[in-house]
Amino acid sequence: MKEATIQIKDLSIGYHSKSDTKLVASHITTTIYSGELTCLLGANGVGKSTLLRTLSAFQPRLSGEIALLSRDIQDYSDKELSTIVGVVLTDKCDIRNMSVRELIGMGRSPYTGFWGRLGKEDRRIVEEAIAMVRIESLASRMVHTLSDGERQKVMIAKALAQETPVIFLDEPTAFLDFPSKVEIMQLLHHLTRTTNKTIFLSTHDLELALQIADKIWLMDKVKGISTGTPEDLALSGYLSGFFARKGIVFDMETGLFRIDNRYDREIRLTGSGQKYAMVRKALLRNGIHAGCEIESESRIDAGETVESPITLYLSGNPPRQVASVEELLMCLET
Ligand SMILES: Nc1ncnc2c1ncn2[C@@H]1O[C@H](COP(=O)(O)OP(=O)(O)OP(=O)(O)O)[C@@H](O)[C@H]1O
After folding, report:
1. Which atom of ligand 1 lies at the shortest distance from residue 43's CA?
2. Domain ABC transporter: where (predicted)?
3. Between helices 325-333 and 273-285, what is the axis angle to 10°?
4. Cα separation values, 181 from 14, 103, 202, Å
5. What number is the average pLDDT over the span 19-30?
6. Percentage of the chain surpassing pLDDT 90?
7. From-to residues of CATH 3.40.50.300 in the chain
8. Which of 48, 54, 219, 242 to mutate to test the pocket of ligand 1 (most atoms within 8 A of CB)?
9. Is the CB of residue 54 below 6 angstroms from any atom belonging to ligand 1?
10. Using CA atoms, how far apart are residues 276 and 273, in angstroms rounded to an integer?
């Protein structure tokens, strides 16, 4: 059953220095639920990391309330918090002389003590975390030899080994290649479903978040934080307004953003299926709007199957068959 894990009321976040206070965001009132993957989106510098660090008690709030499992987060001891909240930050840690398995084992320290020895059950949990993130091949490597993406996966496994009901992650997909981004987001989503964990992460991977997250938080300097399912945010117009820029359009049919390529030419395109779609895409990428609805003297026939040739009917020229999209684009250039 979904529960309100973290309740935030009129929260202000930012930084105190000797001379003044830098307010990053204020009047944040919202709730994070268990069994859900919540993704925090927002432009560079808007305050995502500051919010994550404040929610995980790594830095003090300026004002307002943060209740974790119905108790003010300030009232928890560090030890208590380490069994409830696991945090994965983007900061690169300079860890030397430690293997991946040992580092993930440190996720067990809330239960064993910092230098504590891992028992049989702890070791089983570590292996389980390694298997969940699919990094068996890295387990015996030394941490300082890993790539950024590999290290990111290891830090996620460490958080999983910590077995906390709440996990905060600051840009967990930042250094990952596309398949790994999808894999990690799906894994985190799956975990919320199977273990009822509360997972809250910041990301710039908009498309992935819109397709995988249960809830989206849009953070904006002027509008503050808007929250909801990706679909409700789309229907209310928040999403399209949030990322409104020249050249980006929000497609209500797919609920995703797409690049609005500008075009200065139009051409009739016939054919069907995948080949038609790919030829149309390539032409638009090159400033030519093509489609079966367009009336023009020249025409391109993309054929009916992937194997069919593409035929170019340029006015005043005999029909010309081309074998690839690349060749078609070259013909249109000349
Ligand atoms: N220690 C600090 N002291 C003062 N200001 C800070 C500190 N750390 C960050 N800031 C400022 O707070 C604001 C929010 O920064 P934050 O790192 O939270 O943004 P972000 O949304 O995570 O950005 P990005 O997407 O680029 O990672 C920025 O203006 C940043 O310069």
Report:
1. 25
2. 6-246
3. 40
4. 29, 22, 13
5. 94
6. 68
7. 1-84+164-245
8. 48
9. no
10. 5
For residues 332 and 243, the model is more confident at 332
Q: Is residue 106 within 8 Å of residue 115, measured between CB atoms?
A: no
pLDDT exceeds cutoff 80 at 63: yes
Euclidean distance between CA atoms 274 and 308, whole angstroms: 11
Integer angstrom CA distances of residue 208 from 45, 153, 236? 21, 17, 20
Largest Cα–Cα distance in the chain? Answer: 83
- Does the structure show a pLDDT above 90 at 1? no
Name the CATH architecture for the domain at 1-84+164-245. Answer: 3-Layer(aba) Sandwich (3.40)
ipTM value for the complex: 0.97
- Cα 125 off chain centre by: 26
Alpha-carbon distances, residue 180 vs 134, 187, 334 (angstroms): 10, 10, 41
